[in-house]
Amino acid sequence: MKNCRKVLNICAASLIFTVTMQAIYEQLLILVSTPLYIVIIGAELLLSNYRHMKAYTWKDTAANVYLMFLNAFLDLLVRGMYLIVLTYFFRYRVLSLTNIAVYWIMLLVLEDFLYYWLHRVDHEVRLFWAVHVTHHSSRQLNFSVGFRSSVFQPLYRFVYFIPLALLGFKPLDIVFIYSATQIWGIFVHTELINKMGWLEYVLVTPSHHRVHHASNPKYLDMNMGMFLIIWDKLFGTFQPELPPEQYQPLKYGLTKPIEKETPVTIIFHEWRHLVNDVFRSDITLREKFLYIFGPPGWSHDGSRKTSKQLRQIENGKAQPVQDTNKQCAI
Questions:
Q1: What are phi and psi of 203, to 5 degrees?
Q2: What is the pLDDT of residues 144-153, one digit of tens each?
Q3: H helices within the chain, ranges in order?
Q4: Cβ neighbours of residue 108 under 8 Å, at least 6 residues apart?
Q5: How far does CA 101 lie from the centroid of its chain?
Q6: What is the mean pLDDT of the chain?
Q7: Could you say which of 100, 166, 209, 271 is the most buried, measured as most Cβ atoms within 10 Å of its Cβ?
Q8: How large is the greatest C-alpha to C-alpha distance in the chain, in angstroms?
Q9: 3-state secondary structure at position 307
Q10: Domain extent listing, the chain
């Protein structure tokens, strides 16, 4: 009994130390990033007003802040749990990188690679799209939209990073590098920065991310990367931003906007649609499964369309759409 208590005390002390160190890491990031956010948001407000662009509205900005706080609160609640999980797998690591530069560069690249697949699954599986849709529901694109978080993502995001722990990356470093790349993720949410020269070939830029947030058929579910754009080019989800005269002007938000935005519907509207579809009495078990794990917009009778089907229709390769519920543009 005494040995069990001793082990529990050691585990508790280790968890407290880990969470404390994570809090210190985050405080350092906040100290660095907060002044930057204030400067870029302030500059965007001034420039957009000068150019007579309605880049911000009070309602939309309030929704962005509301979703950010909910996400941060949930992340704080489950942080101890996911750090324990990552620490568990770290004990069975198969590598031990001793070169500091190689360690951090590899962690950055591999974390970004795994985030690409997290983000892609969030777009291509309806269950996870119901979580992620909140980030895409704004009809504007500005720096504050970068804070418009997928509220429930902290409940499962860490699962994608378990391979990093097995490869010998410390749990605190995994969480830190994710938070650090999020700073760049905020920066790319703007209409005021044009294409960025040679950086367009390597990094996710504002131009790439404008495509990601657009609901035009050609742009749906494209440019999933957070920091590096190379994953999209490798795995077939890259789409450059086209001039309006060559395609269409960018249209942000969902293909079917939320009918009435409230603090509840902005989070749960897609969950309600999903539940209604699954509990239909006139469909098979396979169709119920596809309503949960199939792509957003899939329907058993073809009355709604996926992003792929919408592109086929736009290209004249399919029958016209009857009704779309693919609520997709992070």
A1: -100, 155
A2: 999 999 999 9
A3: 2-50, 58-90, 100-124, 126-136, 162-166, 171-187, 206-213, 230-235, 265-278, 285-293, 307-314
A4: 177, 181, 227
A5: 27
A6: 88
A7: 209
A8: 75
A9: helix
A10: 2-183
